[in-house]
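thread from #wetlab-drylab

HS: before we spend reagent money on co-crystallization trials with pyridoxal-5'-phosphate, can we at least see a predicted complex? here's what I'd submit
DV: go for it
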Amino acid sequence: MFRSFAGRSRSTSPALTFLRSKSTSIHVSPTPQAAPAMANSESTKREIADDRQVPAMGMDASTFTAAAQSCIDEIANYYTTLPSRPVLPSIQPGYLRSLLPTQAPQDPESWPSIQADIERTIMPGMTHWQSPNFMAFFPASSTYPGILGEMWSAALTAPAFNWLCSPAVTELETIVMDWLARMLALPEGFLSQGEGGGVIQGSASEAVLTAMVAARERWLRRAIEKEGITDEEEKEDRICELRGKLVALGSQQSHSSTQKAANIAGTRFRSIATSREDGFALTGRSLRAKIEELKSKGLEPYYLTVTLGTTNTCAVDQFEAITEVKKDYPDLWIHVDAAYAGAALVCEEYQHYSAQFASFESFNMNMHKWLLTNFDASCLFVQHRRDLTDALSITPAYLRNQFSDSGLVTDYRDWQIPLGRRFRALKIWFVIRTWGVSGLQAHVRRHIKLGEMFADLVRGRSDLFNILTGPSFALTVLTVNPRRRKMVEPGVADGEDPRPYQDSHVAVTPQEADSKELDEANAATKEVYELVDKRREVFFTSSVIGGAYAIRVVSANPLAEERHLRRAFEILVETAEDVLSRREKQ
Ligand SMILES: *Cc1c(COP(=O)(O)O)cnc(C)c1O
């Protein structure tokens, strides 16, 4: 291979001619000393016998075609039969050990025997996230165009850390991130045409950590500049001192990834309380109070996660009030975590939120949650890409090249924690083109409607259930009444109680955190949740929110239909009635 390439006249290669015709060109040549050294060696005269039993690529092209065809047939069959498979597995921990050998096979195995083990050993241990009966956590969508994108990404495996490592990987990413920024109506500053831009990360947690490290470095750089320190050693010492004072902030409802990122970034983390009255949103008032409290102790808040769609309840933080606070603390980096609910920003009716991000430094949303793209595709946008590259760029000699040095190309390795990266832009490209913006909007709006329909069902049984929050971005959070209540018409005040429906039926507020009624409601809700879970027909998530044990129901995966939500509600009603009858007899 090597010799035949070197022997070929380079001027006849059309690709290279094309590249050389540009002002800057890719220069490909063998290491100068390598060729003569090899020519003199004995080993170049004898061909090395190929005694491998397995072909270089594992199978030859025709075997691959047949294997891939049968694999794809099985995948299509999996999706067709998915609605009838139990959403949760019925196995015990460690089940797989008894099904697989303790040692790796010594000899090669054939593809059919490998593939057969998917159904036999893997399927029994799967929780089916794509099942329409999966209503837990947040969805993690999978779609056929997304799968095809993953196939092409695998086929073109190229850990393209530099532009030069595969220009298409970088350039497609920049283009689809700009498409996405426009689709989500992010402020202009987040586009690559200015000083900002987007980068695809593996997960929201990674995006939060990346933003936090950039925030930490920006804060320290500004502090050192203010102090006017120029001596390198003195600078380093002072940075270490200052680092010990830094505090990352999130609300009580922000995702645990903020605290984890602070652990990794080596700074303090403080959370800011939220309350039921504020809908579990972070308020400007409590942010200001926390900053002042920390500063009075000599600590320095440098980073804050605000959330569009918190994990527990899909709460939306008070972005406008928080923007006002930021005016007094311009060095505070504000990151918007919109991992799940950010998908809704494709619809005009949600884009007033995007406009509120204008003075925030960074934003992330996961295409792989609600926007039809297979895991992983977490999109991080910043208004100043220099903040990322200043914090994350390290360039050893072997990574230097004239393109990167010219500053005309993007090297995404400087925008992320790892060096190598997958070709994830392909699946995003395929998904956006397959649905079009209008298709993505229809997809989100349909789930919003399904969520509203589900919440209506819950309100219709106010004798059994309370809605704690929602529906918000298709998520409804409910609790079970410890005793049956008098039914009220949804939206109409109870005749004996002047308060509107929502207020008259919520037993659980933080003030009542140790009340008997709350304890009873928590016990009843927990019992219902655990019984539903045992049936394995539907999968919800439970959580404790403001002292209340609650059940989260979100149905936003591609295969979800109205009948699945209605059936899920039936199961909730049956179970709650059983539990309450038993309790009433006690
Ligand atoms: C799901 C979620 C995360 C974590 O997402 P990963 O991509 O799994 O790291 C973070 N924040 C919010 C608001 C989420 O909903």
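DV: Residues 138, 203-205, 255, 257, 307, 309, 311, 337, 339-340, 366, 378 surround pyridoxal-5'-phosphate (CB under 6 Å).
HS: ok that's useful, forwarding to the group
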